[in-house]
Amino acid sequence: MKYIFCVLALILVIIAGCNKSSSCNAVTITQQGTPCGQWAIKKNGNVYPADSIPAIFKEEGIVVCARYELYEDLRMCACCGGTWARVLSMTYPPE
Length: 95
Fold this sequence. Notes:
alpha+beta, 22% helix
């Protein structure tokens, strides 16, 4: 019985890990709605500035497939602070 439980737990961990790493989100690249004209990603109407957008994707209005994580930038300046996106990977979506 203990063996079956361990095997099932291992299978669930593998499945959860595979689903998490392969997902990406369709986001729009923009400079609109950001302080100081930074490049940002837009998802569901929310704009998140990001310093880590690769130069090849810095084109207003294009839709890309991105993996990212949100974080709070605690700096206090005119062009920073608030919720930012750290881009982990970015590709053009398949056609």
